[in-house]
Amino acid sequence: MNLATHYKCDDCHATFSLDKPALLCEACGGLLEIGYDLGPADPRRITDRAAARRDLGLWRWSDLLPLPRGAEPLYLGEGDTPLMPTRRLGRHVGLPNLLIKNDTLMPTGSFKDRGFSVAVGFARALDVKQAFTYSSGNAGASFAAYAARAGIEATVLVEDVANESKIAAISLSGARVLRLRYRSSLEIFAGVSALSEAGFYCFVNFINPVRHEGMKTYAYEICEALGWRAPDVMVHPVGTGGGLYGAWKGFRELRELGLIDRLPKMVGVQPAASAPLVRAFAEGKPVAGRHGDANKTVAQSIAGDAPIQGGSRVLRAVYESGGRVVAVDDNDLFEAMRLLGEEGVLAEPSAAASTAALLRARAQGWVSESDTVVSVVTGGALKQPSALAQAARPPAGTVQADPAELLRIFREGLV
Ligand SMILES: *Cc1c(COP(=O)(O)O)cnc(C)c1O
Ligand SMILES: [Zn+2]
């Protein structure tokens, strides 16, 4: 059973068949969305089937994902990451019902795998042979890994904020890496759009209508874990907004199916140094312009001076849900990395943004003590080693591997 039925254009509402790997609307160039026929669906059947297929990770929700009938899921172990209560962090920020969704445990170390598993799996089923994306690192590493497994020839255009470890990860999976020179994210979008319109299959969020379908599985996993209830607030770091918007689509589908009766507030987080969506939200605007400098923050994965398509989809999700977009500075990111570390979760700075935002959330008044808050930790620390070293406390000292000296230190402390 697969309930996906068509692509539909956001702007002119034209619909298209899912049997082709489409990007933008053929009629008007608008963004495409995948539509489902949820009316006749039996929600209990969907949840029972999902519960019985835990060995399939996020593909256990395949009824609600686009995959042509008979096609194999492209599965590397993604999905079903832990939703964990905290030991101290929740009390520290005044939110005893705080839960951490630990997506650092994904196959390539970031939540990007939710989207690429589904989008590359869909593309393989429709016989796509070559494709590209642009990336600050994690998207490229994820795309390269799934494309390698799918036998799709991959090119990754990397932004200048991408660090050497991430670039090496991309190329280790066999993708062609091209470093980009540009002055603003807007130049990247112009290039990516031109390639897409010329028929090169593109995996950039939103231009590709399937990636955020994978991100919907956040909503399914979280609501299932909460006994078919939505959290009050979901906090997610935002670059293009694919993660936040995908989760929002998932929550709305669950409500349409009657599995949950209300939706969470969606809260996006950006680095203060480049926060176009924060500014647009503060001004109540539906689209965001340019703001800031992506090189002035340690949060590489969410640094960009403009969001793709003006961030219109993510802003819509934030407004409709009663959420917001908030800014965090680098010191708060390092503090959040240490607090998460003490919960056993090692986050890269961008991934700690959803926790950094909580440091001031009670004081800013956008959460209350009784709220169930899900903070998504989107990517692991090891792919940005320099920031890991910056956030960590230095070693306590250097000691001789000598029994007498070690005994003295353990009994009396360092002198
Ligand atoms: C890509 C990324 C984000 C932002 O995701 P978008 O879908 O572009 O908003 C957040 N955190 C990490 C670790 C990422 O790699
Ligand atoms: Zn259209």
UniProtKB/TrEMBL annotation:
Residues 76-379 form the Tryptophan synthase beta chain-like PALP domain. The keyword Lyase applies. SUPFAM superfamilies: Tryptophan synthase beta subunit-like PLP-dependent enzymes (SSF53686). It holds the Pfam family PALP. Its EC number is 4.2.3.1. The keyword Zinc-finger does not apply. InterPro entries: Ser/Thr_Dehydratase, Thr_synthase-like, TrpB-like_PALP, TrpB-like_PALP_sf. Its cofactor is pyridoxal 5'-phosphate. Keywords: Lyase, Pyridoxal phosphate. PANTHER family: L-THREONINE DEHYDRATASE CATABOLIC TDCB, THREONINE DEHYDRATASE, MITOCHONDRIAL-RELATED. Belongs to the threonine synthase family. This is Threonine synthase.
